[in-house]
Amino acid sequence: MAKSASSSGGSKSTAKSKNTTSKSATPAQEPEVIQATAHRDEAKTRFNAALDEAKAAAAALKAEAGQVVGTYRDQAKGRSSDLATDARAYGEEAKVKASELAVEGKHKASEALAALSRLVSENATQIDDQFGPKYGDYARNAARSLEENAAKLEAKSIEELGEDTREMVRKSPGTALGIAAIGGYILARLFRR
Q1: What is the pLDDT of residue 13?
Q2: Same structural domain for residues 175 and 111?
Q3: Do 129 and 166 share a domain, yes or no?
C-alpha cells in the first residue's frame, strides 16, 4: 500500500507539477498573446489604410468620370448647336429656293393663261363661222377673262395668292375640292406620258 500511496502520491505530484507547468507556461505565453494582438492591430491598420486608399481612388475615379462626362456634354452641346445652326441655314435656303420656284411657277402659269387666251381669241372667228356669232362671243369673253386672270396672276405676289386661295377655300370648300381633284387629274395625265 505504501507503494500505491507513494505511486498515487507520485501521481498527485506529477499532476501538481503538470498544473504548475501549465500555470508557469501562461506567463510565457503572454508575449505570444501580446504579439498576436500586435499583429491584429497591424492588420486592422493596414486594412483601414487600404480601405482609405480605395475610397480615395473611388473619389478620384468619380471626379475623373465627372470631368469626362462634362467634356462629352460640352461637345454634344456644341455639336447640337452647330447642327441647329446648320438646320436653320438649310431651312432658310429651302425657303428662298421654294419662293424662287413659286415665283417661277406663277410666271409660267401666267404665260400659259395668256397663251391660251391668244389661242381662244385667234380661233373665235372660226367659231363664229362654224357655230354662230353667239358662240364666238363666248369664246372672245373667255379669252378676255383668261387674259385678265393672267394679268392679275402676274401682278400679285405669292403671299397675296396664298391668302386669296385660303379665302376662296373658306368661302366655297366644295369648289376648292373639285378644282383640286381636276388639277390633280390633269397633272397625273401630264406626268403619265
Answers
A1: 43
A2: no
A3: no
